[in-house]
Design a protein that fits this description.
Low-confidence stretches: 1-12
Helix content: 25-40%
Distance between the termini: 30 Å
CATH class of the largest domain: Alpha Beta
Strand content: 15-25%
Order of helices and strands: EEEEEEEEEHHEHEHEHEHHEHEHEHEEEE
Number of strands: 20
Strand order of the largest sheet: 16-15-14-13-12-11-9-8-20
Length: about 375
């Protein structure tokens, strides 16, 4: 059942949810993600923010955020989506995965955020993005899948003002809501957390194939610009064999022009006994992915100028040089081609790079 009709009022953050139906025993099944949570009256799904109330599904965090901040787009990370531009970033609370290594667990696993979060309407967020000079708005910090209704309404308000939208997500979503959601996203960075079902099941409580389906859908059935991030966790998903298999799949199923970011893990949440990722692992993994045919491979959460730089896949010239999130050299022509060989560069580019740099600017937004 698509339960949302028109623009119902929001009362205390509770908003009529979409993508649910009543099953034979009278429970409501959430059809947003493959968890298929089945709820009695008053129960919440694993994400904690989608709840059964008065025989309907509601979203309890609509219009509320864990905070707003203007970031560099490279922090999402998106290296080939208007490089150097600023993005207004926000999230809500909760998550539909149960990652033991979550790097934002204080937000994604929050249970008291309904009372603590900042409030802002979609229109207020769009106005704030425009006023801050942001090229885009990113749904991040926790997974926008679980606040899809809110994110989609924000996307509509942003697009009406010429602001682009970005989803930073684990990609764990059913097909019907996925089609509606990505119709409103201009770019996405999807976490491909590993390349084994065993890792997904034991360490995230989810399944690999559903994420692979989302990646293939975005790449082949939408106009959404796609980049991928894999957080490398020592001893769990960082073997050369797994990195090679993951990279081969991306090259074969998505194409060599989809950027892949290998990011460093730091001990957190329920995996504080696992050491941080050595920089050498990231460097080696990047080379494996390049050897498997990927044209754009980056390293993250470490200082590595080579791993930050965008190279032309045809002549290997440095076309966008970065130091962390700061653009040091931007040599692309106005139409997004290499100035040395004329080869086209995959991505979305302006005539010039933005100059937002490494700043992080917290932002207060008026609710209305």
């Amino acid at each position: 059942m698509n339960a949302l009709m028109g623009e119902p009022a929001v009362h205390g953050g509770v908003y009529p949810g979409r993508w649910w139906h009543v099953i034979e025993d009278g429970r409501i099944q959430c059809d947003l993600c493959p968890r298929d949570c089945r709820l009695h009256e008053g129960q919440r799904g694993l994400c904690f923010v989608r709840m059964r109330e008065h025989d309907r599904m509601v979203l309890t965090t609509y219009g509320r955020s864990s905070g707003f901040c203007v970031d560099p787009i490279e922090k999402k990370p998106l290296n080939q989506f208007y490089p150097g531009s600023s993005v207004l970033s926000f999230g809500t609370a909760g998550c539909n995965l149960a990652c033991k290594f979550c790097q934002n667990w204080d937000i994604s696993k929050a249970r008291d955020m309904d009372r603590l979060m900042d409030e802002a309407s979609p229109q207020a967020i769009a106005r704030a993005a425009l006023a801050s000079g942001s090229k885009s708005v990113a749904f991040t910090y926790n997974d926008p899948v679980i606040f899809a209704e809110y994110a989609m309404d924000v996307a509509d308000a942003c697009h009406a003002r010429g602001i682009q939208t970005v989803a930073v997500t684990a990609g764990y979503m059913h097909d019907a809501p996925r089609r509606e959601f990505y119709a409103k996203m201009d770019a996405a960075n999807v976490d491909l957390k590993a390349f084994t079902e065993d890792f997904y099941f034991k360490l995230t409580g989810s399944h690999l194939n559903s994420v692979l389906d989302t990646l293939a859908f975005i790449r082949h059935e939408t106009g959404t610009w796609l980049e991928i991030t894999t957080l490398l966790i020592p001893g769990h998903n960082d073997s050369p064999e797994e990195i090679a298999a993951l990279s081969r799949w991306v090259a074969r199923e998505l194409g060599p022009d989809v950027p892949l970011h290998f990011s460093a893990f730091h001990p957190d949440h329920k995996m504080r006994d696992v050491p941080a990722t050595p920089p050498a692992t990231l460097v080696h993994s990047r080379q494996i992915a390049i050897d498997e045919g990927l044209n754009y491979v980056y390293t993250g959460n470490v200082h590595n100028r080579d791993g930050d730089t965008t190279y032309c896949p045809s002549c290997h010239a440095r076309v966008i040089e970065r130091d962390w999130y700061e653009i040091k050299s931007y040599r692309l022509t106005a139409v997004g081609h290499c100035p040395d060989c004329g080869g086209a560069m995959a991505g979305r580019y302006g005539a010039q790079a933005g100059n937002f740099g490494r700043k992080r600017i917290p932002l207060a937004i008026h609710a209305a």
